[in-house]
Amino acid sequence: MIGKWNELEQIQPDVYRMLKNSRIKNRVAHAYLFEGGKGTGKREAALLFAKSLFCEQITEGIVPCDHCVNCKRIQSGNHPDVHVLEPDGLSIKKEQIQTLQEEFSKKAVESSKKLYAIFHADKMTNQAANSLLKFLEEPNRETTAILVTEQVQRILPTILSRCQVISFKPLSPIYFKETLLQNGVSPSNATVISHLTQNLEEALQMNSQEWFAQAQKIMVKLYETLRSNPLKALLYLQEEWFAHFKEKEQIDRGLDLLFLIYKDLLHVQLDKRNQLVFNHLEKVLEHDALLISSQRLAEKMSVILDAKKRLLSNTNTQLLMEQLVLNLQEGSSFV
Amino acid sequence: MRFIIQRDRLIQSVQDVMKAVTSRTTIPILTGIKITATEEGVTFTGSDSDISIESFIPAEEGGDEIVEIKETGSIVLQARFFSEIVKKLPLGTVEMQVTNSFQTIIRSGKAEFNLNGLDADEYPHLPQIEEEKTLKLPADLLKTLIRQTVFAVSTSETRPILTGVNWKIENGQIICIATDSHRLAMRSAPIEGEEQSSYSVVIPGKSLNELSKILDDTTDLIDIVITENQVLFKAKHLLFFSRLLEGNYPDTSRLIPTESKTDVVVHTKDFLQAIDRASLLAREGRNNVVKLSTMDGGFLEISSNTPEIGKVIEEVQTETIDGEELKISFSAKYMMDALKTLEGTEIRVKFTGAMRPFVIHSLNDETITQLILPVRTY
């Protein structure tokens, strides 16, 4: 969603100012860590900054032209002095860092500048992170590193201390909802989607997906089963739920939706009805809100978050969901 | 872009530049070959960003027309497919034409291929050459220089700078140094070209190996141009670019001992074969170590002992042994590598004690120096 400097200025004013000043004053740090939630424009900002360093027809000392050879090649991933590293499978492996190190032991191909960007830097294996460490410590002249991550707390502290951390602020869902409405997304969908992502492309894709519409219905049904007949919930999982949520990302999305329902419950309890995501559930939620203490509600929400976290590690998804459903039932928790 | 070209020349050029193209690259455009047609001829470029090879086919050579240029321009084509296609085309001439949106038609006889090309602007730019700043070396001498030094470069990535060969050019002389911190190879040679210019660059060992494969054993002069980031070797119609290594090469001049305590002159072949035999048993043990001791009557005793396998002792007749008695251990592999590069039937080995590095020269030729560090044994 950010393709130009002025858009970055609108969406992330602090980031914009920091990058601009370091570039104009010629005090570009040897390593940056872009940190912030999904869809806050980190990747785009990293590419923009790379372009700004390499662009041939730079204006105002910082704004890249976006149509010179270098800008075009950075955009298409063909610039020989700009290296982009992304997870190979689940993680960034030590070999990838070693190749990068080999590459950087040589002089640049065209100019004297070199830049590398590591996306999802939190997915580096420990060995990879430790190899990178030495590399970060002894930068060559004119080498810039950009590490991009959504989970800054998972970065090794030793790496963190060697980078200039630039925080991308989460966008307000309300602002994003406006954008979605302008793009022709229906109001009910826009509210849900604006809570799930902040990336416009992804949002529009979700909006048009049959799967996503179905997923919302199934998740609401799961919730209703849970409240009316908890014992049936396990059966429901087998009957319908697993047929629809197959991949890990899909389950993750489903858990997000479930979490939003419980969050709505909390909103009802706190009498903040204008913030409801699932408006059509208001009546049901109103009823349920009276039956549950806010402490118990918080517990349930943390159970969902816990399941989300466990999903990232290598778990059996079926067992994970069953455990979640058992824990969400009324009464004492099972596991 | 549109031209008609003779197929055998096309195959030759594509094969040459294919040597630089690798399939495993992070930069997508480098899986392609860049083809540029100008009024003078057609240029092919292949690169893996470390080395780049450019092959030029002139429009006309010796009165014969090789390429008929109809329209100038450039394109990047997938190397894997393009090289296979040109090899199997039916006729002696090939027509290539780029239509709009990088569609490329390759036509020969009745066969017609339509290949999707890529934008040539995306291809890495090779440095512009300033013709006047060139140095010249005959191809065979260049190959020898490489052969005599490049084997000694380090293979470990812990000190990347040592994976290259240091080329120092000053006072009309080129000095090549390679070391992996256990041994060192140094060769000097006179060089033609600009007298005043002086350079010190480090060229990756891998690039030099590739270069030496591409060059023919002729006495044709090769132009060498050293730029900020790359070094260029220019043969007839063939340009070889290599990136340089970043950093300063360690100062090696103080490592080479100037005086010696024991001087041995020995027949190269006999000595090499004896070391080779001794290493048969040593190879199994750690470090591949053989032991050398001076004996009375001008003999050298070469021995190796691996307790679990057995031992070997051999005496080698030398020409002369001057100076102190000596017992020294060293790696047989390093010694054989060094001996294989030396020219001349006899060599002089200069020792300065059992714990100090020793130097090997050809008897009458001081331009090449091989230095080996001994191994400490008890």
UniProtKB/TrEMBL annotation, chain A:
Keywords: Nucleotidyltransferase, Transferase. It is an enzyme of class 2 (transferase). InterPro entries: DNA_pol_HolB, DNA_Rep/Repair_Clamp_Loader, P-loop_NTPase. Its EC number is 2.7.7.7. Signal peptide: none annotated. NCBIfam families: holB (TIGR00678), PRK08058.1 (NF005972). This is DNA polymerase-3 subunit delta. It comes from Peribacillus deserti. The lineage of its organism: Bacteria, Bacillati, Bacillota, Bacilli, Bacillales.
TrEMBL record, chain B:
One of its GO terms (molecular function) is DNA-directed DNA polymerase activity. Residues 254-376 form the DNA polymerase III beta sliding clamp C-terminal domain. InterPro entries: DNA_clamp_sf, DNA_polIII_beta, DNA_polIII_beta_C, DNA_polIII_beta_cen, DNA_polIII_beta_N. Residues 1-127 form the DNA polymerase III beta sliding clamp N-terminal domain. Residues 137-251 form the DNA polymerase III beta sliding clamp central domain. It is found in: Cytoplasm. It comes from the Bacteria. Pfam families: DNA_pol3_beta (PF00712), DNA_pol3_beta_2 (PF02767), DNA_pol3_beta_3 (PF02768). Keywords: Cytoplasm, DNA replication, DNA-binding, DNA-directed DNA polymerase, Nucleotidyltransferase, Transferase. Forms a ring-shaped head-to-tail homodimer around DNA. Belongs to the beta sliding clamp family. NCBIfam families: dnan. This is Beta sliding clamp. It comes from Peribacillus deserti.
